[in-house]
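R.M. (postdoc): so does anyone remember the format we settled on? I'll just put the C-alpha cells first.
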C-alpha cells in the first residue's frame, strides 16, 4: 500500500492483513521497535526518522529481505505498508519477487491538507501503537484504553518533520505511482472517507487481483 504519511495505511493494512490471515509488514513499525529496544541499529535509524528523513535504502532493504524470506511470507503472502518508498526499493522488491513482482499496489489517496491535520493531531500509544488524536483522545488522561501505556505525539509528527516527510513523499515516493500504473498493478482508492467504506473498497480490489 502506497500513500502519504497520515493517509491511514497503517490501520487499513492491519485490517486487510488480519482479514486475509497474512503478515502485515510495516517498515515504520519495524524501525520504531528497533528504536524502542535501543539497539545500535535503532539508534542509527532514529536520527533519520526524527528529522523526517528516509532511512538509507540499504538498511531498509536488509530488514525487508530478511523478513520476506521467512516461511509465513514466502508460503502465504504479506501486505507491505510503507515500502517501497524509493526507486531503489521498488526495483529491489521486483527482483526479490521475480518473475511476477507485486500482485497489487493500492494507492491510498488523501489530499495533503487532510493528512497535515491528521498528522499534527495524531497521538500514539507507547505500548501497543494504537492511534488516537487530539479530537478523539483515550477516555482517561492520555493513557491507552487498550493497554494502559502513555499516549504521546510521535517525534516525527512535529511541524518541521511533517513538512520534510511530505516533501520527500512528493519527490521520491509519488513517482512510483505512475510506474506501477504503467505495469497495470495500481488501484487508486480515495482514503478521505469513512474507514469501513475505504476498507470495503480495498477488499474488493484485493479480491479482483487474486
Ligand atoms: P512510517 O510510520 O511508515 O511513516 O515511517 C516512519 C519513518 O520510518 C519514516 O519517516 C522514515 O524515516 C522511516 N521509514 C519507514 N519506512 C521506510 C522506507 N521504506 N524507506 C526509508 N525510510 C523508511
Amino acid at each position: 500500500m502506497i500513500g502519504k504519511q497520515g493517509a491511514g495505511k497503517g490501520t487499513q493494512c492491519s485490517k486487510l492483513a488480519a482479514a486475509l490471515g497474512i503478515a502485515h509488514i510495516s517498515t515504520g513499525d519495524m524501525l520504531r521497535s528497533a528504536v524502542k529496544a535501543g539497539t545500535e541499529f535503532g539508534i542509527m535509524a532514529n536520527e533519520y526518522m526524527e528529522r523526517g528523513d528516509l532511512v538509507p535504502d540499504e538498511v531498509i532493504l536488509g530488514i525487508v529481505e530478511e523478513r520476506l524470506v521467512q516461511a509465513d511470507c514466502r508460503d502465504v503472502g504479506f501486505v507491505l505498508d510503507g515500502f517501497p518508498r524509493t526507486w531503489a526499493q521498488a526495483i529491489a522488491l521486483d527482483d526479490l519477487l521475480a518473475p511476477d513482482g507485486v500482485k497489487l499496489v493500492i494507492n491510498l489517496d488523501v489530499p495533503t491538507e487532510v493528512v497535515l491535520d491528521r498528522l499534527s493531531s495524531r497521538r500514539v500509544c507507547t505500548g501497543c501503537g494504537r492511534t488516537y488524536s487530539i479530537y478523539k483522545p483515550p477516555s482517561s488522561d492520555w493513557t491507552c484504553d487498550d493497554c494502559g501505556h502513555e499516549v504521546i505525539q510521535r517525534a516525527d509528527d512535529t511541524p518541521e518533520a511533517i513538512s520534510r516527510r511530505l516533501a520527500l513523499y512528493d519527490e521520491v515516493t509519488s513517482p512510483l505511482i505512475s510506474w506501477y500504473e504503467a505495469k497495470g498493478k495500481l488501484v487508486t482508492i480515495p482514503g478521505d472517507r469513512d474507514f469501513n467504506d475505504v476498507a470495503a473498497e480495498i477488499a474488493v480490489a484485493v479480491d479482483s487481483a487474486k
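R.M.: ...and that's the designed sequence above, right after the C-alpha cells. Also worth knowing: The chain has one domain: 9-209. Residues 5, 27-28, 31, 48-49, 52-55, 60, 82-83, 85, 89, 156, 165 surround adenosine monophosphate (CB under 6 Å).
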